[in-house]
Design a protein that fits this description.
32% helix, Rossmann fold, HIT family, subunit A, alpha/beta, 468 residues, single chain
């Protein structure tokens, strides 16, 4: 048979390659092969001819495809190991090999997260909450499904899931006595790669960190069909007729009918609620001063605390002391709102928390964390009545002389308004006390905080230079 010129060149090159291999390596045999078509393993539109030198006994069983003569190299597109993952073995065993570090490593790269667990505990939500926030913040999708079977899922844990905001898709499976025990974590990332962990870990601190829990890792590149099966199972469960959207109203109905479970019956370790921090000495003094100023008939006041003495914690403590049911916390940066929500969720675990910002609006929440850039606009202000809130906190009160803050302060008539700042002196001479009834409730500056051992002392060095 006569070869065309291109075939002749190919044959000549193959002969040259064989000669080089025999001269340099003296093999006992060869594997020769070519992949044609995607079903046969072709991954790029070019001719790739394999010439592999072989030796007697070089692998236990020489039978099989050309690529598989190099153990573990059959699929060179195998999903790379995720940076930060403890290992890439198929089984995560718990205890000294906990699931949480694996989830965190994948969450750092995920653009879609689908979680279905039977039981959700507050401790478990706290382990993953910030990582899920990060996924949402970078434009990713988060879907979460849990159930009410046996009343194990904690109502406060569901409220903390709602803190993720409107862009998180949250559903609840109403079991009505049906056994409900799924545990799967599906994480997808760019390039079509995905990993699913399916096993025994519910969403609790013990299941993610300390317990003996087995979870099987399913990877797209290693077992694409199994990964698709897990995803299809999640889709079917997420849209099951027994599932409902998770809302604050549903949580309160669940709280009212829930009978706390007996561990012996459910087999689930009941974790104690996280300890609520106690106020420090400065905060105790400030709380006493705030209680006294309200008792004296004041409806507003300014508290000046040096950075690090816990202004946000103080405000959370005082909303509880004042028995405020509806609270508005106003700040000028969204990252402050995120940090504040975490604080308030600790002090007020039963409260429904929500944001009111340019991208997210939860006007019915018990405690609303609002950006002044959004709420300071008239049409947003007028979505609320002037007496909507029992207690308003204005953070970084040294900004309050700005027109947006003045508009908000003038509009609302809370039972109490608290201004917080570490730097009460303004360079433009504007008076802050005039915005809160000329009432300086309490002050503890940097020097006093250091003196009391609540702040670290420091040395300050100025370096002279001749720059004009």
């Amino acid at each position: 048979m006569r070869h065309p010129p291109s075939g002749l060149r190919f044959s000549t090159r193959s002969t040259r390659v064989r000669a080089i291999i025999e001269r340099q390596h003296a093999p006992d045999g060869y594997n020769l092969g070519v992949n044609v078509g995607v079903p046969a393993g072709q991954t790029a539109d070019h001719l790739h001819f394999h010439v592999i030198a072989r030796y007697a006994g070089d692998i236990p069983d020489p039978r099989g495809g050309v690529r598989h003569v190099l153990a573990g190299r059959g699929n060179y597109l195998l999903t790379p190991t995720i940076e930060g993952a403890p290992h890439d073995r198929t089984v995560i065993r718990g205890s000294d090999d906990p699931l949480l570090p694996h989830l965190v490593a994948h969450l750092d790269h995920a653009d879609q997260v689908d979680i279905a667990v039977a039981f959700t505990m507050t401790s478990g939500v706290r382990e993953l909450q910030e990582y899920l926030r990060d996924v949402i913040a970078r434009g990713g999708r988060v879907r979460f499904l849990t159930g009410d079977y046996l009343g194990v899922t904690e109502p406060d844990a569901l409220l903390r899931l709602l803190d993720l905001g409107e862009r998180a898709e949250l559903r609840i499976f109403e079991s009505d006595g049906t056994s409900f025990h799924p545990k799967s974590y599906i994480l997808r990332r760019a390039g079509g790669y995905g990993t699913a962990f399916v096993g025994s870990s519910n969403l609790s601190r013990s299941a993610l960190q300390t317990g003996v829990e087995w979870n099987y890792r399913v990877v797209t590149s290693r077992d694409g069909q199994s990964f698709r099966d897990v995803c299809e199972a999640f889709e079917a469960l997420f849209t099951n007729p027994h599932t409902r959207p998770l809302t604050a109203e549903w949580v309160e109905r669940y709280r009212s009918r829930r009978i706390p479970p007996v561990p012996q019956r459910t087999g689930v370790e009941i974790e104690p609620p996280p300890a609520v921090p106690l106020p420090n000495t400065v905060q105790i003094e400030a709380l006493d001063a705030l209680a006294a100023t309200r008792a004296g008939g004041n409806a507003a006041g300014l508290v000046v605390l040096a950075t690090g003495l816990g202004k946000t914690w103080l405000s959370a403590f005082d909303t509880v002391s004042a028995k405020a049911e509806r609270v508005l916390f106003v700040a000028h940066r969204e990252e402050i709102l995120d940090q504040t929500m975490r604080t308030y969720s600790t002090i007020r675990p039963h409260a429904v928390l929500g944001k009111y910002t340019g991208t997210e609006k939860s006007p019915a929440a018990d405690v609303i964390f609002a950006s002044i850039q959004t709420l300071g606009r008239s049409h947003h202000l007028h979505r609320f009545t002037p007496d909507e809130f029992d207690y308003i906190v204005v953070d970084e009160f040294h900004h309050a002389a700005a027109s947006t803050y003045r508009r908000l302060i003038d509009y609302f008539t809370p039972k109490f308004l608290l201004g917080l700042t570490a730097t009460p002196e303004r360079t433009d001479g504007a008076s802050l006390l005039s915005l809160c009834g000329e009432n300086l409730v309490y002050r503890c500056d940097l020097a006093e905080g250091i003196k009391r051992g609540l702040l670290s002392p420091f040395d300050y060095y100025g370096v002279p230079d001749e720059v004009d």
